[in-house]
Amino acid sequence: MTEGEIRAVVRESALRIFELEPGELADDTAFEAVGGDSIQRLELVSVLQEQLGVVFTVEEEVEIVSVRAAVEYSQRALEK
Predict the structure, then answer these.
(1) Is residue 73 within 8 Å of 56, Cβ to Cβ?
(2) Which stretches of the chain are DSSP H helices?
């Protein structure tokens, strides 16, 4: 899976979970900055694990705070 494909899955999932329009979420925008909470973030982690077939450590889950971070950790997990 390419970085672009991963980014598309992450963005689509994040926009749905955080109830945002595409222009409201840049790759570097912290989910908390757009009103996201820890429960929504964990929901995103769960969706990514299911859709991408990745497994994150608890430490990684805590670090997934933006689209960019989610893409990076997903890529690393896919490379394992």
Answers:
(1) yes
(2) 3-17, 38-52, 58-63, 67-79
> Nearest CA to 26 among 74, 66, 55, 79?
66
| Tokens 């896919």 -> residue | 78
Tens-place pLDDT, residues 13-60? 999 999 999 999 999 999 999 999 999 999 999 999 999 999 999 999
Distances in Å between the Cα of 30 and the Cα atoms of 16, 26, 33 are: 16, 9, 5
Tokens of 43: 């929901």
Lookup: tokens for 57? 């450590």
- Global pTM value: 0.93
